[in-house]
Write a structure and sequence with these properties.
14-stranded antiparallel beta barrel; 2 helices; about 60% strand; elongated
């Protein structure tokens, strides 16, 4: 057992350098970046639904209480990738961008009766953008037009590696916890340059590095309402806390004629925080044939202050400013249908999934609410059937996400998610005659 645990954990760590989720969104220049969908392949077919779901053959790290229901004979590995095409539109101008990324790798197994364990690696936020804007601001001596160009770019994001425990103290009820190591950094820059060589170029570079923890708690309660029908309620809570990170701002003013540069470094101690995050879910299951559910989540970003660079009384200042975020509300509905989960017919064992979500923005941009998010998804759980193993599954889903705002850029993203769940009977007792 010890060798199995060590080998599994090392395999997860070896994939850490590849677990970067891509984004080209200019909205990732704010806050901690674009929030990742922290869901696995089977959840994504239902658009991320799963707070009240517990599966014996899938890893549902959305709620750690679900680990208590993992199959007692299996070792489950799940890994996922995604590819996406995003269309950006602003004032009649459109542009497309492509991304592909390794999303997550997780594992789960039964440690003891009614006691399950899970561990894995997944993204938390993503930052990646590069764009510019320009305009004319007047005329210089001699009649030449003076113009400026602002160039914005950024990379980085936060990632987490977690170890989770789920326990069912009595039938129908389970609790769980995920303990995570959260790490990552970001680099953002704003470079302002002018066509007139007499005007200094002003560059601002924002950086921060995070090495901290994240803790998530979960519970689930299921009640039989008929011989094949079950109603489950689930809830999760993620602890908000200071990340003990010190964001910095480097400001460089450079004379293009003399190449003389003046610089100043500003630093904020303990300037980054995580908000409290809550979620509740309800699921209705009819045997192994179908399940439907709904989730609601709340992230209390409005209580968090953000590092901000501004001129205050003609003096450059870098400080924590309030009223920079909104609370984020999200509602998701969806379901899954499987004609004959235990039959021999291949097509009867395929799981058909669908889901939809609506989320309010957590960002404020120049005092204006950021884009609202609308998304839908559909997918399949295709069984992998051969002589050796008929419990593994290929999860494929397509998702459309629209981030829309009248004042800012509209994003339409079409994403393909592919996840493979390897379900191996490592703990079965074999008989030799």
């Amino acid at each position: 057992m010890k060798k199995i645990l060590v080998a599994s954990f090392v395999s997860v760590l070896s994939l850490a350098s590849f677990a970067q989720s891509g984004t080209n969104s200019p909205y990732s220049q704010y806050g901690l970046g674009v929030l990742s969908d922290q869901t696995s392949g089977f959840n994504r077919g239902m658009n991320g639904l799963g707070v009240a779901f517990h599966e014996s053959n899938q890893v549902n790290f959305l709620n750690p209480a679900s680990y208590a229901y993992v199959d007692s004979l299996s070792m489950i590995f799940d890994a996922g990738i995604s590819g996406q095409i995003t269309n950006f539109e602003e004032k009649g101008t459109k542009i497309n961008a492509n991304n592909a990324s390794f999303e997550y790798v997780v594992a789960s197994f039964r440690l003891a009766k009614r006691f399950g364990v899970s561990f894995g690696l997944l993204p938390f936020t993503n930052i990646g953008y590069s764009y510019s804007n320009s305009a004319n601001i007047g005329s210089a001596t001699g009649g030449s037009v003076i113009s400026y160009v602002n160039t914005y770019s950024g990379t980085g994001g936060l990632h987490q590696i977690y170890l989770g425990l789920g326990w069912s103290p009595f039938k129908g009820f389970s609790i769980g916890v995920n303990g995570s190591y959260l790490w990552g950094d970001y680099e953002r820059s704003v470079i302002n340059s002018y066509s007139d060589n007499y005007v200094n170029t002003l560059s601002k570079y924002y950086t921060a590095s995070v090495k901290n923890y994240k803790v998530d708690f979960g519970m689930q309660y299921s009640a039989k309402i008929a011989s094949k029908d079950e109603l489950t309620i689930g809830a999760t809570y993620s602890l908000g806390h200071n990340l003990k990170a010190d964001p910095e701002c480097l400001v460089i003013s450079k004379n293009p004629q003399t190449s003389v540069a003046d610089s100043a470094v500003f630093k904020i101690s303990n300037g980054l925080e995580l908000p409290d995050m809550y979620a509740v879910g309800l699921a209705y299951t009819h045997g192994t044939k179908w399940k439907v559910g709904a989730d609601y989540s709340l992230q209390t970003w409005s209580k968090i202050k953000a590092p901000t660079y501004q001129m205050v009384n003609n003096t450059p200042s870098y400080f924590l400013a309030g009223n920079m975020y909104n609370d984020r509300h999200k509602v998701t509905v969806g379901g899954e249908f499987c004609p004959a989960a235990t039959g021999r017919n291949f097509f009867g064992r395929i799981r058909y999934r669908i889901g939809a979500s609506y989320a309010t923005p957590y960002l404020k941009i120049n005092g204006i609410d950021g884009p609202k998010e609308y998304s839908v998804s559909a997918g399949f759980g295709v069984p992998i059937m051969n002589r050796i193993n008929n419990r593994s599954m290929l999860n494929i889903s397509a998702q459309w996400v629209r981030q829309a705002s009248k004042q800012f850029i509209t994003e339409n993203t079409f994403r393909i998610n592919i996840g493979i769940t390897f379900n191996e009977r490592w703990f079965a007792k074999w008989k030799v005659e």
